[in-house]
Automatic annotation (TrEMBL):
Pfam families: Sortase. The keyword Cell wall biogenesis/degradation does not apply. CDD domains: Sortase_D_1. The keyword Hydrolase applies. SUPFAM superfamilies: Sortase. Keywords: Hydrolase. This is Class D sortase. NCBIfam families: class_D_sortase, sortase_fam.
């Protein structure tokens, strides 16, 4: 796990934002929003990572590192061991069904999710919605694509500990173009 974070910290420290204006111009000319890479640092438990916006629901929630009960009372929790929002692979976010993720059942395939992290916006498009058992760990496995997975308890109206989980999987809508630094 340390190697994973060390690698991404190295990548973040060695990245350049020299082509940001060019990427934004290209995205605007293609009538799309620009997405840019995040500079990665190792977050501390409870540290705010950014925010999750759900345009269809007109809601924005803070994202915190970790998934303890204390964190889930403040906002959305990032599941440790999964990619940080904006990184390659599977970034998994959890929230309570009776607070922040109360209306997730109103979303459909094709809806957008926006993650803001380090003043960079990542737009994801919902590809799959499913219901799994509460002990199904396949939802947190690494993915070959930039994926954002939202998890909450299900059914939404269940009283007490819910027996299932409601899963939304979304893929990065527009991957940023990175060009090598010219010398």
């Amino acid at each position: 796990m340390f190697s994973y974070y060390a690698y991404w910290t190295w990548v973040g420290l060695n990245s350049t934002d020299e082509n940001i204006d060019e990427q934004i111009a290209i995205a605007k000319s293609e009538n799309k929003e620009a997405l840019l890479p995040v500079v990665t640092t190792i977050p501390q438990d409870g540290e705010k990572l950014g925010s999750l916006s759900i345009p269809k629901l007109k809601q924005t929630f803070p994202i915190f590192f970790g998934d303890s009960e204390t964190i889930l009372k403040k906002g959305i929790g990032h599941i440790r061991g999964t990619a940080l929002p904006g990184e390659a692979s599977n970034s998994v976010l959890a929230g309570h069904r009776d607070t922040f993720f109360r209306h997730l059942d109103q979303l459909v395939v094709g809806d957008k999710l926006i993650v803001e992290r380090s003043s960079t916006y990542y737009i994801y498009k919902i590809k799959k919605i499913r219901i799994v058992d509460n002990d199904d760990n396949t939802v947190i496995v690494p993915k070959p694509r930039h994926t954002l997975t939202l998890i909450t308890c299900y059914p939404f109206t269940f009283i007490g500990p819910a027996p299932q989980r409601y899963i939304i999987e979304a893929e990065l809508f527009l991957k940023p173009k990175m060009e090598s630094k010219k010398q």
